[in-house]
Amino acid sequence: MTNRPAPHVSPRKRPVQDRSKHTVQSILEATAQVLVAQGYEKTNTGAVAERAGVSIGTLYQYYPNKQSLVADLIGLHVAELVETVRIALTRSRSLPVDGMLRAVVKASIDAHRMNPALHKVIIEQVPREGKLADALGISQRLGEMLFDDLRQRHAGLDPQRVRLAAFVLETTIEALTHRAVIEGPDWLKTGQLQREALALLGPYLAVLGV
Predict the structure, then answer these.
(1) Would you give the distance in Å from CA 132 to the centre of its chain?
(2) What is the number of other CB atoms lying within 10 angstroms of the CB of residue 66?
(3) Cα–Cα distance, 34 to 45 (Å, whole number)
(4) Distance between CA atoms of 6 and 29, rounded to whole angstroms?
(5) Contact by Cβ (8 Å): 74, 80
(6) What's the confidence (pLDDT) of residue 18?
(7) Which residues does UniProt assign to DNA binding (predicted)?
(8) Domain 70-208 annotated CATH 1.10.1740
(9) CB count, 10 Å around CB of 163?
């Protein structure tokens, strides 16, 4: 049996003019809508083009296949989440560590609350392979941001201990928000998940002394 080559998942070209940017934005919005309505396996470029109101030829000018569409969509969502957390960390730099924790937990929950149905499809159905996996690889970036913040706050602590604390924080927040997207999206809206996450992680940081 011969192995099929991995699908090309990079966009063919990036829009430069405002009209092209609007077209790509419409295509990506349509991709999100079709993913939610039909799921990853049934999503195809024809359905996306129809939903976006463009010809299939126009879509193929920018994206060669479904995988490239989904990878670009996920990449945008990941970039938005990373930027949201970065802003939260920057604004909480002068606060005690519990203030930083509150800001980061809230930022992560707010980001996942925007379109939980789409996040659910991405978490449950999109294959973790090739550049799709790269687009989903947000954990390391968020972990490094938390590590940098904690290290600046506690320069005298063992860096490996601080790195482990950052790993525990990021992993716990990600796991809680992802499970809530799948099993209890209402928890993202009511503030209940945020309160429980802070009750869990606040004492952990206090015991560690970070």
Answers:
(1) 12
(2) 21
(3) 10
(4) 25
(5) no
(6) 67
(7) 44-63
(8) no
(9) 16
Closest residue by Cα to residue 119 from 173, 78, 63: 78
User: In the numeric block, which tokens belong to residue 159?
Assistant: 């860096």
Minimal CA–CA distance to 123: which of 51, 180, 190, 161? 180
Which two tokens mark 195? Answer: 């309160």
> What are the structure tokens assigned to 22, written together?
């609007």
Domain 15-64, CATH number (from 1.25.10.10, 1.10.10.10, 3.40.50.620, 1.10.10.60): 1.10.10.60
Residues of the chain with pLDDT under 50: 1-6
Burial class (CB in 10 A: 0-12, 13-18, 19+), 94: exposed
Tokens of 154: 């506690």
Where exactly are the structural domains of the chain?
15-64, 70-208
Rounded to a whole number, what is the distance in angstroms from the first to the last CA of the chain? 54
C-alpha distances in angstroms, 209 versus 153, 160, 165, 206?
Answer: 11, 14, 10, 5
| Both tokens assigned to 183 | 């099993």
Q: Please choose, from the candidates 3, 193, 5, the residue with its C-alpha nearest in 3D space to the C-alpha of residue 102.
A: 193
Please give the structure tokens belonging to residue 111: 């980001």
Counting every residue written for the chain, the total comes to 210
State the residue for tokens 């940081």.
205
Q: What confidence score (pLDDT) does residue 3 get?
A: 47
Nearest to 39, CA basis, from 66, 17, 58: 66
Q: Where are the alpha helices (H) located in 92-158, listed in sequence order?
A: 97-113, 116-125, 130-136, 139-153
